[in-house]
What does this fold into?
Amino acid sequence: MSELDFRAAPPTGLPRLRWALTDGITLVRRNLVHLWHAPGALVSTLAVPIVFIVLFGYVFGSAIAVPGGGNYREFLMPGLFMMLSVSGIMATSAAIARDAQQGIMDRFRSMPMARSAVPFGQTGADMLIGALEMATMVVCGLAVGWRVHNGVLSAVGGFAVLILFRYAMTWLGAYIGLLVKNEETSDHMVMMIFPISIISNTFVPTDGMPAWLRTIADWNPVSAAVAACRRLFGNPGIPSQHAAWPLAHPVFTTIAWSVTLLAVFVPLAVRRHHQAGR
It folds into this structure.
């Protein structure tokens, strides 16, 4: 970490903000360099999208009918994109918990760097890694027949929603990692969140679920995000205007959820990192 030179903290205001951004970008670079020097982790990161498409697209695809007709893999792809976004919780939580467990966080706190730089650095790196995973999944999706049918602007909007949602998820992961400070405990806690992405419209339509479970799935933020992508990409499975309110207004709902999660967990994660050094 030679980039982090020992310097006095600037006063409040714009200079302090610039200081925090500089340190945050340095830690983003540090996390990306670590991934680059871990070929196994890099290969597994790029392999996950391929495994998801083969496993769910061809195994489930032979047994599930899409409401209103259409190709199941086109129905599935927005859900798989959203699975990558939710996986940001696991990736960020594990990385931060590992750094805390190995004492790297303590080394960071001993340096004259912005307290917010550590969570910002990890979440920023994870967002870039998520974009790389998403690009890999786009290529795989195109290879198996997935297409965007609503034009370039809608496609850009769909991926913007995905990246925003992923970034919000990473801050939840950052808070969990800072809270537990142990990689194994972090993995166990995050696995409790995994059902959120399953009890949704990610893999199957919610119409066939029991009424109580369908209500949970329809109001699940993940369902709204998947529905938003299907609408923006023009893929099968777009909910009608008579669906539950989050599914009838999925783009607005997803943005609102993302902003809310950021508003809650950014200050919580930064405060937790600051308090842990006391």
